[in-house]
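Structure in, sequence out. Go:
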């Protein structure tokens, strides 16, 4: 077996240097990568920072009992397989070890050849466990809306629309919303909640390719339709028969294709490129865009008749900044996601970090939040993500259009004038009450950021204690 490279990582935890040495040399021959720890503390440190497939664990360690390390491994959710070793065979320890999820139990001295076989078997079981876990995950991820996070009222309305229209499996759906709000995930969820779920979901972004390529992607082509067309080829509509076709960035679809798509939506038939026969298929179209389609229609960039046909069932996905409470929920969702991906154990965010996320206006929406969390988890090393792990995320209150001096704004100055400072203080107090003392929220009501609110509270001598602001006055 010498010389084979298995690439699997084995951690040897034993205080006997000589034993570690002989095991290491032997197992290296089998092609494993070896890590070593002489104490429980060292073992914990290695487990926290390395990916380990199998642990050879001595029961009697200078600073703790091997069973504690076994418990630690299980608590932390490491999927490494554990083989326990001991010089003193105690039935009680063996029973405990097996109960706590050890794979097997060896009494020293043992035959290294036997150990080598046992390790191979144990690692097979690790692989199997991982395969099952992956299968489980991919099954869960096909459950559609379960993976789309959101508890805000704004998103509840969206989910409701998705679930309702899912049942009407021939209705065309138009999903609109800023970049990164989750149009893709919602389209997929819609498909998975419809009775087309077992049929294909095909996705095409209308921006990425040239007009002729796009046409042949969608409708397929006959042999000889163009120079490279050596064989006939089915397009997306035929491949997705019985399922759903998701046309992303529909606003970028070239005009000639818009006409063909309109015809398809009207009578479910089309011709392959270079073909003369009508092909009929049964697919539902979901289109998506982050552009203002009515405006495009007005400007002549998009066919009005196609727009009205697509707009049968519009779903407008709100930007993240309009989803009350969802930033926190999504941040935690992404922390869990990256914990799995990076094998980390981050628990959450400090309240300051959370407040920074909460007060940001998220122009890149959920995608941007996901990226920020990913970056923070790479940078941070503690159990909580701190402000230091986050980028600046300057809070930008919505821009107020500059008024020309001659044009009256929305506010009317009373004939006798007002005391501007008093007005400011009064509005600040009202906003703080309405926001139960949460500065970020109060700031949002006034177009100010948290620091600006804090500064004003200080200069007006207003108390910082939140409970003072939590009142029945909240509207
Ligand atoms: N509600 C949500 N719950 C969990 N993840 C989400 C949610 N919304 C979006 N995401 C994630 O955010 C990222 C961006 O979402 P998606 O690609 O669906 O956005 P989009 O609206 O299609 O963006 P674009 O307009 O740029 O195509 C993806 O990684 C997606 O998984
Ligand atoms: Mg998209």
């Amino acid at each position: 077996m010498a010389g084979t490279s298995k690439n699997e990582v084995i951690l040897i935890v034993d205080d006997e240097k000589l034993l570690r040495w002989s095991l290491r040399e032997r197992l290296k021959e089998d092609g494993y990568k070896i890590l070593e720890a002489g104490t429980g503390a060292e073992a914990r440190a290695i487990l926290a920072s390395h990916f380990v497939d199998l642990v050879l664990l001595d029961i009697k360690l200078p600073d703790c009992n091997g069973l504690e390390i076994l418990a630690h491994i299980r608590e932390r959710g490491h999927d490494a397989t554990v083989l326990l070793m001991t010089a003193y065979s105690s039935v009680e320890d063996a029973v405990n070890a097996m109960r706590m999820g050890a794979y097997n139990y060896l009494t020293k001295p043992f035959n290294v050849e036997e150990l080598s076989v046992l390790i191979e078997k144990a690692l097979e079981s690790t692989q199997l466990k991982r395969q099952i876990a992956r299968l489980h995950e991919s099954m869960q991820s096909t459950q559609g809306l379960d993976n789309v996070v959101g508890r805000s009222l704004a998103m509840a309305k969206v989910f409701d629309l998705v679930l309702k229209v899912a049942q009407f499996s021939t209705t065309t759906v138009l999903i609109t919303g800023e970049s990164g709000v989750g149009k893709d995930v919602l389209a997929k969820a819609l498909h998975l909640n419809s009775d087309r779920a077992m049929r294909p979901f095909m996705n095409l972004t209308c921006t990425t390719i040239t007009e002729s390529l796009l046409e042949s992607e969608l409708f397929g082509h006959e042999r000889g339709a163009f120079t490279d067309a050596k064989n006939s080829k089915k397009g997306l509509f035929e491949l997705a028969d019985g399922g759903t076709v998701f046309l992303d960035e529909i606003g970028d679809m070239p005009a000639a294709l818009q006409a063909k798509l309109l015809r398809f939506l009207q009578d479910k038939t089309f011709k392959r490129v270079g073909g003369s026969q009508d092909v009929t298929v049964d697919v539902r179209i979901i289109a998506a865009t982050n552009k203002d389609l009515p405006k495009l229609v007005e400007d002549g960039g998009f066919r009005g008749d196609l727009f009205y046909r697509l707009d049968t069932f519009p779903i407008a996905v709100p930007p993240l900044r309009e989803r009350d409470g969802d930033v926190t929920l999504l941040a935690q969702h992404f922390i869990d996601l990256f914990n799995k991906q990076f094998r980390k154990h981050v628990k959450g965010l400090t309240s300051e970090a959370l407040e920074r996320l909460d007060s940001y206006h998220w122009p890149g929406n959920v995608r941007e939040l996901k990226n920020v969390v990913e970056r923070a988890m790479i940078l941070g090393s503690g159990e909580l993500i701190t402000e230091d792990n986050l980028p600046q995320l300057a809070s930008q209150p919505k821009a107020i259009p500059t008024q020309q001096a001659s044009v009256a704004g929305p506010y009317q100055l009373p004939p006798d004038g007002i005391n501007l400072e008093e007005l400011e203080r009064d509005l600040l107090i009202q906003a703080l009450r309405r926001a139960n003392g949460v500065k970020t929220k109060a700031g949002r009501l006034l177009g100010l950021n948290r620091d600006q609110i804090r500064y004003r509270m200080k200069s007006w001598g207003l108390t910082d204690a939140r409970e003072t602001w939590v009142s029945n006055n909240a509207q």
